[in-house]
Amino acid sequence: MSSASIKTKRIPALDTLRGSLMLLGIVLHAAMPFAVLEHDASISFRDPERMSIVFDFIIAIIHSFRMQLFFVVGGFFASILLFERGIHSMLINRLRRLGGPLALSLLILWPLTFIALFYAQSTAAGASVKEILSLVPHLPFFPIQLAHLWFLYTLFLLSMMFAAAAVLLRALSHHVHFKFPKIPSWTVSSAVLVLGVLSLLIHERIGTIAVLPVSTLTIEIEPLAYYGIFFLFGCIVYFVRSFFMVMKRHAFLYLVLGLAALVVHQMRIESIPYLNAAAATLAAWFLLFAVAGLYLRYLPRASTLTRYCSDAAYWVYLIHLPIVFFFIGFLWPLPIGAAGIYVLTILLTTIVCFVSYHYLVRDTIIGATLNGRRYPRKLMGGGV
């Protein structure tokens, strides 16, 4: 299933955007122990004197659009693979680039993440390193939790469903080489309206701006459907490239509207039915349009540095969470305020992630798996 009529040239802004969304995970997860509201039940170490609503707003902003935009980009790139390289190539690519890293990360990174979280919780409770080490062998590592790897798992499921739908469509079309029909530009507006209503209904049902992801290797319809909405939108945008220009042209308007909707949602006005759900929905769509538009507008070409960071981002995404927990646990007993621990955690985690990528990943088989092929350690452009 391929279409020779469409051949997508590299869009550096989308590579940079995808990398930035992955790197935002450090900023997000480092803020959670210091928020006033509980954003993740597993992060139970809290200090009232270090809590600040500023961290809640940081989390709310990132949660409002980050994963939604991630799946839009994921749907766009999945369409490139399917319609330009064919079903077989797409399946091989997704198994190698998503399935393999997911399986290995669950085996290696989940225990490390659980140990690092336990370390942070224990140091916050005043336990010594000796006491912590004595308890590590007795930790309940099963059942395996996805933690931050839920995105990889959900993207893999959606990609497989997308490929299965393509196979079915080709079979029904009775053509050996099915070509997707040309989609008129007005389809995007209609798709946003329909998909927006569907996402609003899910927001109304769950009552929060962040749709809780699946936590184990199961299939939960609600989060899969929600993020599938944005994945599908990315597939539609693949056929209507003119929408890139719309996002670029109106990026600042979308930004203002998205932030206004986010503020309304944070006010949590319960007296008006569907208001909070509508605000969360509008914030998600407007902010993802705004962020994508700003990247397309101001970062149309990749520099050596942005290309390198984009290549490193997948590795950083995979390993950052246990490192974040470790540094928070290490810094927690010190006489440092929340802002100090937060900034130091981001800085130290970023250094460890990038140094490990540079010396242990970039020109190795791990780098070839994550980036498509091996690249030399020097700062130069990488691959898809």
Question: Main attributes?
Answer:
384 residues, mainly alpha, 70% helix, globular
Could you walk me through the main structural features you see in this protein, from its secondary elements to its overall organization?
The protein has helices spanning 12-31, 53-85, 87-124, 129-135, 150-173, 186-206, 221-239, 242-249, 251-267, 275-298, 304-331, 338-361, 365-371. It has one domain (12-371). The chain has 13 helices and no strands. By secondary structure, it is an all-alpha fold.
What is the C-alpha radius of gyration, as a whole number of Å? 21 Å
Pattern of helices and strands: HHHHHHHHHHHHH
Kindly estimate the percentage of residues that lie in beta strands according to DSSP: under 5%
Let me know the number of strands: 0
Tell me the number of helical segments per DSSP (H or I, 4 or more residues long): 13
Q: Could you say how many structural domains there are in total? A: 1
The largest sheet, given as strand count, sense and whether it forms a barrel, is:
none
- The amount of helix comes to over 70%
Assembly type: single chain
Q: Provide mean pLDDT, rounded.
A: 90
Low-confidence stretches: none
Report the structural category: mainly alpha
Outline:
The protein has helices at residues 12-31, 53-85, 87-124, 129-135, 150-173, 186-206, 221-239, 242-249, 251-267, 275-298, 304-331, 338-361, 365-371. The protein is mainly alpha-helical and 384 residues long.
